[in-house]
Design brief:
Blueprint (H helix, E strand, L loop, with lengths): L2 H7 L11 E5 L11 E8 L5 H14 L7 E5 L2 E7 L10 E6 L22 E4 L4 H4 L8 H4 L8 E6 L4 E8 L5 H15 L37 H17 L3 E9 H17 L8 H14 L9 E9 L21 E10 L2 H4 L2 H17 L1 H13 L13 E7 L24 E9 L10 E6 L3 E9 H10 L3 E2 L1
Parallel strand pairs: 5-7, 6-16, 10-12, 12-14
Antiparallel strand pairs: 1-4, 2-8, 2-13, 3-4, 6-9, 7-8, 9-15, 10-11, 14-15
Length: 482
């Protein structure tokens, strides 16, 4: 804050918090995707009782996760969670809506649930638009809508058919990351299935594990991100806008990668490393990412050296970076994910280099990041001390891809059997996970993606690219289009 701002702030009126609310400031991690509204959509293989779902999620939030029942507010220039001191009918912990369809789901007029896709080779298919089943008509779709006073952070919508249930969990990204959502949902299913609520670990309303990282820091930016000068910023924006101009329609696709394909690829890489006398290793996630980038950049020119900057998520909850060099011992549902920067790779390297070489490049970056706890703390400190500063994911002459991973949230393992409708004899399991996003101002998501879930046969990803880019990938023949 400049001396001018400090001078005027001495005389400006400060807005006190509402008397009915307890306040917790948002951290820099909460504000990374400030304008994004995200719905985690689950498709469950049987009919559930919406009344039991509503009663249990309301009880869970009120008793164990009151921060999930907070409101978002911007007070005195700072975003904060406002947690009701008491939840009442006019101040509910969650907005719960339901739509009942007394019929089976399958119909020619409805999108096909992607579980019909099979095969031993990877494939891509258009992302089915099922937002009408995951969000109610009154669900907030922008940050401004969530900032309306007394608007709960958490909105849950269920669409119940005779044979299937759609469950959408919507919140501003200020509230949760995927792992936080998973933590809340696993606690919810425990309550649904009969666990005593006192045995379920919760999160205190005033939990602030990042508080020690909010002071001044000499670090100028987060590793892998760039504090560009004015000219470089303009060049970045111009080149990004030009890409939008030449390929304006942004299209999400669903990517299915069979586990057998991944296992065979990983096994071959490990055998090659062993034959070279190397003790290094790669994980399935490394192979998945390396394969994906080889797939989507395979059509690019052999002399194209545009650097590709890849950012891979890391769950800070599990890292010994908090006071006393500890991990987080209790659940934390708000954002606690940072990004591992993979050293940039020229785009033509994804065409010429082996899958093993690229997988190892990603694994080495992850190992180096995880081993550098001091560097991790410095990144956290910068992020918390500079919650609103604009930084860029690559220089002006590069391209970037942010690839998140929801597998640690274990969404496919959720068991809703305790909420089955009378007469159902099936275990209520998640058969598909589909994201829905929106924003008050359009947010370009192209080039990014997420690993959504895994089932017995395959790993499922969502990926967003331009429509023309998808067509060039299709023409290259590197992957089957369904």
């Amino acid at each position: 804050m400049s001396w001018i701002s400090r001078f005027f702030s001495m005389f400006s009126a400060r807005t006190p918090p509402p008397e009915s609310m307890r306040t917790v400031p948002c951290t820099g991690f909460d504000l990374v995707a400030l304008d994004l509204i995200l719905t985690t959509g689950l498709i469950i293989n049987t009919r559930l009782e919406s009344k039991k779902l509503e009663e249990t999620i309301s009880t869970l939030v009120e008793r164990k996760f009151p921060r999930a029942g907070a409101r978002i507010a911007r007070r005195n220039g700072v975003y904060e969670f406002q947690v009701p001191k008491t939840f009442r009918p006019d101040t509910p912990p969650v907005v719960f809506t339901a739509a009942d369809y007394p019929e089976p789901y399958q119909s020619a007029a409805r999108p096909e649930i992607p579980t019909h896709i099979s095969g031993s080779q990877p494939s891509v298919s258009p992302m089915p638009d099922m937002s009408v089943y995951f969000r109610s008509k009154t669900c907030p779709a922008s940050l401004d809508a969530f900032l309306v006073p007394n608007t709960p952070l958490l909105h849950v919508h269920v669409s119940v058919f005779d044979d299937i249930t759609f469950l959408g969990i919507t919140a501003s990204h200020i509230a949760f990351d995927a792992l936080g959502t998973g933590t809340l949902l696993h606690a919810w299913t425990r309550l649904i299935n009969g666990d005593e609520i006192d045995t379920i670990p919760g999160m205190d309303w005033d939990a602030m594990p990042f508080e020690s990282f909010t002071g001044p820091t000499a670090v100028t930016h987060q590793r892998g991100w760039f504090d560009l000068g004015l000219i470089a910023q303009l060049l970045f924006i111009v080149r990004f806008v030009l890409r939008l101009f030449w390929d304006p329609k942004e299209t999400p696709y669903l990517v299915r990668v069979p586990k057998g394909f991944l296992d065979d690829s990983k096994r071959q890489i490990m055998e090659d490393l062993k034959s070279q006398g190397s003790t290094e290793w790669v994980g399935s996630s490394d192979v998945l990412l390396a394969w994906w980038f080889k797939t989507v950049f395979g059509y690019r020119a052999s002399d194209d050296t545009t650097p590709i900057h890849i950012h891979v998520p890391v769950n800070l909850r599990a890292k010994s970076v908090f006071p006393s060099e500890s991990t987080l011992a209790t659940p934390y549902i708000n954002n606690a994910v940072s990004g591992i920067p993979v050293p940039p790779v020229p785009v033509n390297a994804f065409r010429r280099e082996s899958l093993g070489t690229l997988s190892l490049h990603i694994r080495r970056a992850i190992l180096a990041y995880n081993a550098d706890l001091a560097g991790m703390r410095a990144d956290m400190h910068w992020r918390c001390a500079n919650p609103s500063k604009m930084i860029f994911p690559c220089p002006a002459d590069g391209e970037f891809s942010i690839q998140t991973n929801w597998l640690s949230a274990r969404l496919s393992e959720l068991d809703f059997s305790g909420a089955c409708a009378p007469g159902s004899e099936r275990k209520a399991r998640v058969v598909s996970v589909l994201p829905v996003s929106s924003a008050g101002k359009p947010i370009p998501l192209r080039g990014g993606g997420a690993v959504l879930m895994e089932d017995e046969q395959a790993v499922w990803m969502s990926q967003v690219r331009g429509e023309k880019d998808w067509e060039k990938i299709r023409q290259s023949g590197t992957i089957a289009f369904i």
